Amino acid sequence: MTMTDSEFLQAIGLSHSYVVDRAARPVLHGVDLQVRAGEAVCVVGHSGTGKSTLLRCLAGLLRPTGGEVRLDGRRVMEPPPDLAVVFQDYSRSLMPWMSILDNVMLPLRRGLGSQERRSRAQQALADVGLDGTGSLYPWQVSGGMQQRVAIARALAYRPGVLLMDEPFASVDAQTRADLEDMVLTIRRDTGITLVVVTHDIDEAVYLADRVVVLAGTPASITADLRVDLPPERDQLTTKADPRFLAVRAEVFNMIRTELARAGRAT
Amino acid sequence: MSARLLRLGRHLLVEAWLPVLAVTVWWVGSASSTSLYFPPLSQIAERFRELWLFDQVPVHLVPSLQNLGWGLLCGVAAAVATGIVIGRMPRLHSALLPLMEFMRATPILALLPLVFGLLGLGVTSKVALIALGAFWPTFLNTVDGVRSVDPQIREVARAYRLTRTDIAFRVVLPSAMPQVVVGFRTSVSVAVVVVVGSEMFGAGNGIGYFVLQAQRTYAIADMWAGIVLLGLLGYLLNLLSAGFERWVLSWHRGQRAAAAVLGEGAR
Amino acid sequence: MTQIAHERPLAAPLRGPAAAHTPRSAGRRPWVAQAAVLLGALAAWELLDRSGIVSDDALAPPAATFARLGELLVTAEVWTAVGQTLTGWGIGIAIAIALAVPLGIGLGLSNFAYRSTRLVVDFLRTIPALGLIPLAALVFGASRSAVLVVVVPACVWPLLLQTAYGVRDADPLALETARSFRLGTWGTLRRVVLPGALPFVATGLRLSAILGMLLAMSIEMLILVPGVGALLGTAQRNGDTVDVYALTLLAAFLGLAVALAVSRLERRMIRWHPSVRSRR
């Protein structure tokens, strides 16, 4: 799991088209992405560029119409066992008929034994700061807490790779900052490989070792920027750091130029 | 505390005055009745006590309830199982659609002669027909419920590689449960109608047989006592199935109440 | 088969024979598979008949059944019976509408009336409809009135409850709008509340109509009131297996026709409703 070569998770010439009214509508074209083990990569792009499509292909939830996805050298044809996904809409991704603890335990293999499954789930809940809420139902807690449950579910699964699709787009600003810091802590403690899709440039730069920009129709990767910040980050000081501001400005300009170019083209 | 008691009292008063009045009017109005068809309620109550507490219970009520139980169990179990399978296979569902529409539009009791011919005049026929009647409402609702499982939930199940059994019993079935239970409650009322109908058509016991026989032998108070028993039975079964719904769907009511308080989406 | 009244409102105009089951993700030509399934069912029937597992007294061959059905359909007797069944059913439904809709509106408008009648309504509507057959036979004999005595009380409930729910369900926003336009009580009722309740009434009408057909045929069969049910009951008593099968098919087609007709009517009544519009 802790291999250090550059192609732990990779997309090679990835393309995808949806069929709309019997015509193929291409969304992604020739996307190449390499993620090293333990690296945190954020994919940014404005809404509708195909970020979620890319994430679904990486997760094995969607079979790309061209190219391929590889995880640890093996071609991904269906969701691989070493990978977990956190979706944007927590209210729809948690099972309302199960308690919070049962939700977290749901994906754990029966082979583990019930004691082990329970303690793992409780540990994961503690890790996201939800001690003692296991017996509640998801809809009894706030949106931010529900998204924590979804993250705990992913952590209890102990994946090598964690994919997150706009994970904090539906929570308020304060909760969002808390959750970002929590993800950073988890990453530091577990060394997990992280791919986060977001439209928020600040969030992308704050969380990532690398930010890649997805743009165009059909979309491909138009920029790949290293974030040269220390691993210890802080909502106030990091976001005021000149290096943070530099990367942020660069990504912002990149997306704005792309948008302008797209505007001229149409 | 006393305010709550007061509220409870008012609640009971508002809900109960009409039933009490209705029974009283029937009782007083029929007290001196000499009509052959409408005997005094006191006489009906007397016969009710003699027959159903509990002299005739093993002869007529128990067989009816047994048939009802078996028929419901078989019909509903088959309906949920096939409903889950067919609900997850849109092509199969579409292929079966015309046949299903035809079968479920058939007035169920019109099948009595055919089923009695096929399976004989015994318990098997009745249970089979009750099961068939109970099948359709639960089945159609299960199919609908399974088809409307949130795609996001399905995606979570795939992403976390849940086993087929887990997907069926811990994801799809609970998600479809609100609709399944609505279907189940309809199944219960249909099953009761089929029980009564099948006993009237060809049987030597059962509550349906009893009422029809009482009418044919002009034992009118007995007939009325039987009808009252049927009414009580229907009401009790409805209470039971409502309780069952409450119990199974406690999460669903809680969620809807929470959603109503929070408004849409995030807090 | 049949749906009987619920304690809570059915989410207005959903489950109908044709309404909710539009195959969306099915193949491009579903009728090929559908025809195959129907033929398969006939073939299974034929095979079961030829295998001799079931005696000839109990199971009629499909060819003979359809042939008999064809013969029956050119006799005046059968069409008279169909007419009698439909008439009894139609009168029953009409009376049920005339009783249930105004009462339902009343119960929907008055909270006191709604709560006062709840126990009585709950009790009366859960009486198994066929339990009244002996009473009907006793008072009216094998006549159309006997059919009505059973059909009307049973069909009143789905309509009554759906109407009451529909009226109670009136959109508060629409009510405020009506007040701001000073529509007055009658105007609000006629222009806002009743149109809003219409989908619920339509659903109640469909439930009642299908239930009514089931009951009408059952009574005809059980106490031999002239109609399709009586033909079927007589055939069974005479032990004429082919007739039983042919007439069962006839009853099924009649049931199907009623179900299709009422769900079409339901969709017409609520043409403006989003659940129908989106299916265009």
From TrEMBL, chain A:
Keyword ATP-binding among UniProt keywords: yes
Pfam families: ABC_tran
InterPro entries given in the database record: AAA+_ATPase (IPR003593), ABC_transporter-like_ATP-bd (IPR003439), ABC_transporter-like_CS (IPR017871), ABC_transporter_ATP-bind (IPR050166), P-loop_NTPase (IPR027417)
Domain ABC transporter: 9-241
Keyword terms, alphabetized: ATP-binding, Nucleotide-binding, Transport
Highest taxon listed in the record's lineage: Bacteria
Record keyword Nucleotide-binding present: yes
GO molecular function, one term: ATP hydrolysis activity
UniProt-listed CDD domains: ABC_NrtD_SsuB_transporters
Transmembrane segments: none
Leader peptide range in chain numbering: none
Protein's recorded name: ABC transporter ATP-binding protein
Taxonomic lineage of the native organism: Bacteria, Bacillati, Actinomycetota, Actinomycetes, Kitasatosporales
TrEMBL record, chain B:
Record family assignment: Belongs to the binding-protein-dependent transport system permease family.
TM helices/strands, residue ranges: 12-29, 68-87, 108-136, 188-212, 224-244
Topology of the protein relative to the lipid bilayer: Multi-pass membrane protein
Keywords, comma-separated and alphabetical: Cell membrane, Membrane, Transmembrane, Transmembrane helix, Transport
Biological processes, Gene Ontology terms: transmembrane transport
GO cellular component terms given for this protein: plasma membrane
Subcellular location, record wording: Cell membrane
PANTHER family: ALIPHATIC SULFONATES TRANSPORT PERMEASE PROTEIN SSUC-RELATED, ALKANE SULFONATE ABC TRANSPORTER-RELATED, MEMBRANE SUBUNIT
Official protein name in the record: ABC transporter permease
Domain ABC transmembrane type-1: 61-241
Domain of life: Bacteria
UniProt-listed InterPro entries: MetI-like, MetI-like_sf
Main localization, broad class: membrane
Automatic annotation (TrEMBL), chain C:
Coiled-coil ranges per UniProt: none
Stored InterPro entries: MetI-like, MetI-like_sf
Domain ABC transmembrane type-1, first and last residues per copy: 82-266
Subcellular localization(s) per the UniProt record: Cell membrane
Keyword terms: Cell membrane, Membrane, Transmembrane, Transmembrane helix, Transport
Family to which this protein belongs: Belongs to the binding-protein-dependent transport system permease family.
Protein name: ABC transporter permease subunit
